Design the sequence.
């Protein structure tokens, strides 16, 4: 089945530093990947949609200059949290579909737990 | 705006029981609904995907039903096991061109041995 690999699984960083999270589709090409954020006891909230070769589409309220998304190839999307602050501490998850649109299952990475001290 | 609600927020049952998790959505104009499982600190595992034209999907001990007109879906777990303990999320796709999902907050299931 379709596998999405996310790295790292856990990261602790100091306030003011930047952190990069990678999301790879291992056995399929993903023209579109999604980045979600999950706070404790809350549902996943879509942050941005990442399209290969073009600029990401950010959801309302998500700072595009703070959460930099790059989708340089059909198998890799990266999320960089710039100048991280404690309030950015959260669980970040990426996902991808085998095909466009929503008529196939969405496959998720295992998530990245970010802790900013 | 589509909203997805899951009831109950948490559920604890003894091993062997059959159980039902509920999911409701406010806008019935969906294309599909997907149930996921999330283990603590982990990503999501897709369990079942139901297209809007379908009424139910089955996989092993899991059965998901969809009543699009009433905006409801249920996930039935038969003969529950301690390994079923996890948070179960439902999500709908409303047909947006990009295919992203709208999630409920999940039901945290604990199956006691």
Sequence:
């Amino acid at each position: 089945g379709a596998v999405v690999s996310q790295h790292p699984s856990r990261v602790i960083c100091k306030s003011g530093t930047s952190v990069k999270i990678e999301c790879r589709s291992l056995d399929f090409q993903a023209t579109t990947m999604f980045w979600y954020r999950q706070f404790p006891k809350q549902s996943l909230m879509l942050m941005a949609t990442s399209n290969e070769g073009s600029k990401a589409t950010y959801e309302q309220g998500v700072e595009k200059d703070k959460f930099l998304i790059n989708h340089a190839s059909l198998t890799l999307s990266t999320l960089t949290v710039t100048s991280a602050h404690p309030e950015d501490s959260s669980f970040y998850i990426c996902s991808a579909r085998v095909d466009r649109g929503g008529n196939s299952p969405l496959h998720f990475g295992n998530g990245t737990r970010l802790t900013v001290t | 705006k589509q909203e997805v609600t899951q009831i109950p927020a948490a559920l604890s049952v003894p091993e062997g029981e059959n159980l039902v998790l509920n999911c409701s959505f406010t806008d019935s104009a969906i294309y599909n609904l997907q149930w996921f499982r999330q283990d603590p600190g982990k990503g999501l595992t897709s369990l079942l995907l139901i297209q809007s034209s379908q009424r139910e999907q089955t996989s092993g001990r899991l059965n998901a039903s969809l009543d699009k007109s009433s905006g409801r879906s249920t996930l039935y777990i038969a003969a529950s096991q301690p390994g079923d303990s996890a948070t179960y999320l439902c999500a709908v796709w409303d047909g947006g061109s990009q295919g992203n999902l709208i999630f409920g907050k999940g039901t945290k299931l604990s199956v006691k041995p």
Chain A has no helices and eleven strands. The interface with chain B takes residues 4, 6, 32, 34, 41-46, 49, 51, 57, 91, 93, 95, 97, 100-111, 113 of chain A (CB under 8 Å). The mean pLDDT of chain A is 89. Residues 47 and 59 of chain A are 5 Å apart (CA to CA).
